[in-house]
Design brief:
Blueprint (H helix, E strand, L loop, with lengths): L2 H11 L23 H25 L2 E4 L6 E5 L9 H15 L2 E12 L2 E9 L3 E3 L2 E3 L6 H13 L11 E11 L19 E9 L5 E5 L2 E7 H4 L3 H9 L1 H4 L4 E4 L3
Parallel strand pairs: 1-11, 2-9, 3-8
Antiparallel strand pairs: 3-4, 3-6, 4-5, 4-10, 7-8
Length: about 260
């Protein structure tokens, strides 16, 4: 028996027997008297008012993010930005050395949104053929998070010309990730038994202007990846990037046409 059949048999077993029914009792078997035109119109007005009130509540409680078409932005290239490490093992080894000198590593990364086909896309930097990351990086000791993120964005994406000054509008912090040990594993919380985490990574949403000029290092590629591809795609993008759709779910996207 299918699940649908089982549900149906359970409903039948709860049906009442042939008992006497009061004449004013309305059931599914006895249709109610037809509503007047005025009553139907009143119900429609109430339903419309309820829908509008619900939309108003959602819009008032959700931060709004303007998302502009990808075609609005101009992309060029600039001198290569070489990575300091050639492998994950080298990066973790350097992290350990820096930790001994400076303490916990603090890094910041930017979520830059554009739209294509009326759907939000995230800008990612691709290194080589497979590895993708958000633009950002490590802060200097004592450096302000916002100013440090702007510095990193200028290094990775800004045009090296005073004629095109960048306008990085750093918004809310949408996620905080912790690295308990000198390993690749990170968590969206600091495990309670870890008293000295090795890294704290914060993700900020950065609001783009309607038009911007970007310059990408020649050894990197800039990709616009849709949210539906990132969602739950841990194998391809890792746990930090693949959970960005969930982190952005509380925002209301205003898709601005060109």
């Amino acid at each position: 028996m299918s699940s649908c059949d089982r549900d149906h048999s359970q409903r039948l077993s709860l049906a009442p027997g042939p008992t006497q029914r009061p004449s004013n009792l309305v059931s599914a078997a006895t249709p109610p008297p037809p509503a007047t035109a005025g009553a139907r119109q009143g119900r429609r007005k109430l339903a419309d008012a309820g829908d509008k009130e619900e939309e108003k509540m959602v819009s008032s409680s959700s931060p709004v993010v303007n998302v502009y078409p990808l075609a609005n932005y101009t992309f060029g290239t600039k001198e290569p930005k070489m990575e300091k490490d050639t492998s994950v093992a080298d990066r973790l080894a350097r992290m350990k050395v820096n930790y001994m000198k400076e303490g916990m590593r603090t890094s910041v990364e930017a979520i830059l949104l554009v739209q294509e086909h009326n759907h939000p896309h995230i800008l990612l930097l691709q290194i080589g053929n497979t590895f993708c990351k958000l633009p950002g990086g490590r802060l200097k000791p004592g450096e302000n998070e916002i100013e440090g993120l702007k510095r990193k964005l200028c290094s990775k994406l800004a045009v090296n010309s005073p004629s095109f000054p960048p306008n990085w509008q750093v918004g809310e912090c949408v996620a905080v990730w912790w690295r308990p040990n000198f390993e690749t594993v990170m968590y969206p919380y600091c495990p309670p038994h870890i008293t000295k985490p090795k890294e704290c990574k914060k993700l900020f949403i950065v609001h783009l202007s309607e038009r911007e000029y970007f310059a990408v290092p020649r050894n990197l590629k800039l990709l616009a990846v849709p949210l539906f591809e990132l969602y739950d795609n841990v194998q391809r993008y890792g746990p930090v990037i693949s959970t960005i759709p969930q982190q952005l779910s509380r925002f209301q996207f205003n898709m601005v046409s060109s």
